[in-house]
Amino acid sequence: MQEHHGTSRIPGFYEMSAEERLAVARAFADLSPTETAALQGPEGLSLPRAEQMVENVVGIFGLPLGIATNFTINGRDYLIPMAVEEPSVIAGASYAARLAREGGGFVADGDPPLMIGQLQVLGVSDLDGARDRILSAKEDILRRAGEPDPLLRQLGGGPRDLEVRLFRETPVGPMMVVHILFDVRDVMGANVVNTALEAVAPLVAEVAGGRVNLRILSNLADRRVARARTRIPVDALGHEEYGGLETARGIVEAWAMAEVDPYRAATHNKGIMNGIDAVAIATGNDWRAIEAGAHAYAARSGRYTSLSTWSLEGEAYLVGSLALPLAVGTVGGATRVHPAARAALKLLGVKSAAELAQVMVAVGLAQNLAALRALAAEGIQRGHMALHARQVAMAAGATGDLVARVAERLVRERAVRLDRAQEVLKELEQG
Asked: What is the 3-class SS of 7-27, one letter each residue?
């Protein structure tokens, strides 16, 4: 078999068997036999290891793990591991990445890995005076916050700044919220930040003249935003009866609805997160925290809107960009405990949490492009239902080659329904 060292452009990848695809991935990332086995399923996470990760374990729940191809990000090619159950996600990302390659791929960057720790201070009679005292004691507070984790300081991280927010009228009376900004390096940051907040809370309470109630990380990591951009020649977007410029205009028009209408924006942003979540799960990152931060960020203006932006550059290029908070890690947590997550990180070849965030935001932008293009051109159902039909066929009881035969009939008849799948399966089994 031909090896594809250094390039994610692998024609016919979807036509290979699972074993052949795994062999390509193994060669691409130089995976060991143990790492290769970890990607294949049951060997990836044993029951004893699972019992050490969460409570009340009774088993292990699996998700399909696929690879998105064609990605070029900042001039480097990546194979993207994605754990997801929804049809068309991996195919859509791969196709959109191939379109982006026509314009040089994706350009991505990100902010330093700053996370926000919050201290809720109550019982303060003079909010303004307490704020002034906290700001005057800033250096002492930051020093105390950095004491619990000397290793983080050695790695170049630690507390960086302090902010004070005042809420004069709340359901429980006047409230002061102290934000401490932490550079968490290559970890997601929750444990680091929460431990530091516990250590510094008594000092903050003493200086403020109140009591500290909550000490907790914020998942609105808006100081840790990742950004991606792509510039695609309009000619690359043409498809069958749809010309490239017509498709590009349709994409911009479809995006515009998400920009102004929160009902559309919710589904639009969900499509973006289809890709980002799938990479987060595959690499052992906290996709729930990422989701919370992304949707809060989408509403930061006071109105929920699109996370992405699409526009035409003359009539020659379609330009897309995406920005959202991405608090991800490559050290600690499930990223180091789960064997399949470790193997997925090696397959990606990322060297830092910042690089992982850049990969993920590029995947999100690709996913968004795939969905918008389908909506603007052939309609979202056409491609999606062709893949969904296989799941419906299996739900009806089809196995082996009958899965493809039943699915093909359902798509041809435009009747991707369980009852019809059961009828078709019965006909094929009897015939």
From this structure: CCCCCCHHHCCHHHHHHHHHH
How many residues appear in the chain? Answer: 431
Burial of 413 by CB count in 10 Å (0-12 exposed, 13-18 middle, 19+ buried)?
exposed
| Token pair for 81 | 């591991």
Task: Name the catalytic one among 138, 179, 270, 346.
Answer: 270
Strand order in the sheet with 317-325: 76-83, 65-73, 106-110, 225-233, 317-325, 308-313
How much is the average pLDDT of 301-318? 97
Does the annotation mark 240 as catalytic?
Answer: no
| pTM, two decimal places | 0.91
pLDDT over 70 (residue 378): no
Give the start-end residues of each E strand in 74-113.
76-83, 106-110
How do residues 340-366 score in pLDDT, each as one tens digit? 999 999 999 999 999 999 999 999 999
> Is residue 286 annotated as a catalytic residue, yes or no?
yes
Per-residue pLDDT at 72 exceeds 50:
yes
Q: Which of 4, 268, 338, 384 is catalytic?
A: 384
Looking at residue 331, what DSSP letter applies? S
pLDDT of residue 47: 87
Mean pLDDT over the full length of the chain: 93
Q: What phi, psi does 207 have (nearest 5°)?
A: -65, -40
Q: What angle do CA 318, 270, 181 make, to 5 degrees?
A: 95
Give the lowest-confidence range in 69-83, 359-373, 410-424: 410-424
Which structural domains are found in the chain, ordered by start?
13-110+226-378 (3.90.770.10), 114-217 (3.30.70.420), 383-430 (1.10.8)
- Is 338 among the residues known to form the active site? no
- Given the residues 86, 161, 198, 408, select the one marked as catalytic: 86
Whether 5 is a known active-site residue: answer no
A 10 A CB-CB count for 165 gives 11
